Amino acid sequence: MVQDTINWGAVSPDTILDDLEPTVYYSIPIYNKGTEPLIISEVKPSCGCTAAPIDKNVVPPGDSTYMHIGLKLPNQNGELHKLISIFSNDKSDSVKVVNLFAVVERPLQLSSSFIPFNKGSVGDTIRGQIQLTVFGKSPITFKIQSPGSHTRLYSPSEFTIQPGGSGMIDVGYYADKPGAFSCQVVVNTDHKEYPHLDLWGYGFADPKK
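User: That's the sequence. What structure does it adopt?
Assistant: Structure tokens below.
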């Protein structure tokens, strides 16, 4: 009916921010080798990170259809294993499971897709941090541009992280009014794949006590 394993092997996304949703794709045929129409009643991925639309749900004998798989890659490095279950009227294999494998390898990894700020109140300088970890064989140098208004940089404006090491971007936001706030931190690097990191931070300031 359909192959049971898809393995992308090592994949290195060209982005490290989750909201850009780096995705790998693969299309596989689903064959009907029987004498009756194959009716595919449901295609169910194991999580929301996987999409698997098919061209048609009813496949005549001797014909085929295609399933188009898109797998969103997580922010973290490491092995990835997801499943797709295909439900049909195939009497010999009514639930066919397709295994998806990949190994995510990024030379740079962030602890989050944004800078989370701590709790604070109006009049406080509320702190937010994000961790950077370098993988691969070469160090990466980071240069942080001057933050905008209300924002103060506590970490060094320029620093280098060696392979296997980590560093922290630490910023503070002066809250002059209650409610949600956001700020942007722009980071330049000497890595050819990630020359610029546009990091957004989000937080909430309570009314002054």
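The two ends are 66 Å apart (CA to CA).
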